[in-house]
Amino acid sequence: MLATKRHASFYLQYGIVFACLMVVLAACGGSNQTAPTTTSNTPSCKHPISMSQINFGVIPAESATSIQDATKPFSDALSKEVCKPVNLFVGTNYTSIITAMVSKKADVASFGPLSYILAADKGNAEAILRALAPANKADHYYSYIITTPKTGIKTLDDLKGKTFSFTDPASTSGNLVPRYTLKNAGIDPDKDLKATYVGSHDLSLAAVLGGKVQAGAVASDTYDKLLQQGKFKDSDIVKVTQSFAIPEGPIAVRKDMSQSDKDAIQAAFLDITDPAALKAISAGGFIKDTDKSYDPIRDVAKKLGLNLDKLVK
């Protein structure tokens, strides 16, 4: 009888211990099951960056006001990709964006080929992408020298003594390439033309169409865009020359930016495919690129004997 009571006492104690153990295990198991739910509900960033925001500078290929108003869809799209604010600003001229990159006031910038090499050779810009043309997604464009039918200008030689509009000293298709074209034809732009800088490609086109100048230089991208918008008719213009193919402008970052941020920004741009966002900065998309793609532009500048430092004051 005593043995029976002892056995009963033993089993009772064992049962209590076992029950306690099961409670502990159940609690631990419950904890492991709820953790993934919390994690899965935490929003993740596709291309995180370490910077608090991106300062994105854009050269004024067209008038600064129209660019500033139109580019918000792209800055919003980029912000969503990197999960940080994007402060997009348009320079008053090409030099202002070059200076902003060199002085680290811009983290990312959209350049033309010549303005890029000016920023890169001053030490703080590194090409990581190339923008594609909006109309046909081409990776190149052209420089046109244009006039109107009423001027009677048909050849480069006819330009001597005429008024002429360049865009900006740091523009590839609005200054560097047309100068190269003119000099190869035996025309000194500074002596044989009555030339002026008007600031942007749309203003150069407008100056020619409006008769303020007899001829001028314009990028094919801007020409095609404004033609499609109905701003003028193709018959309103005479194309005196079309240049060799020029690489489309790069997207550059600060050279001293961390590699992880460079990679994230590059990936973010490549992932932006929304037509409205791309249209906002007149791009058809982006491809990876490097500084070497712009060596031919450096060669043209050397052949012209341009002092690149003097172009950025």
Walk me through the structure:
The relative contact order is 0.17. It is globular, with a radius of gyration of 31 Å. Strand 7, helix 6 (172-184) and strand 8 form a beta-alpha-beta unit. The protein has helices at residues 2-40, 64-70, 72-82, 94-102, 113-121, 172-184, 201-209, 220-228, 259-271, 275-280, 295-304, 308-311, and strands at 54-58, 86-90, 108-110, 125-131, 140-141, 143-147, 163-166, 194-197, 215-219, 238-242, 246-247, 250-254, 286-288. Helix 4 runs parallel beside helix 5 (113-121) and helix 6 packs across helix 11 (295-304). The protein has a six-stranded mixed β-sheet with strand order 2-1-3-12-4-13, sandwiched between helices. It has a five-stranded mixed β-sheet with strand order 8-7-9-6-10. Strands 5-11 form a two-stranded antiparallel ribbon. The protein is 44% helix and 18% strand. The protein is of the alpha/beta class and 313 residues long. The chain contains twelve helices and 13 strands. It folds into two domains: 54-138 and 248-311, D-Maltodextrin-Binding Protein, domain 2, CATH 3.40.190; 141-246, Periplasmic binding protein-like II (D-Maltodextrin-Binding Protein, domain 2, 3-Layer(aba) Sandwich), CATH 3.40.190.
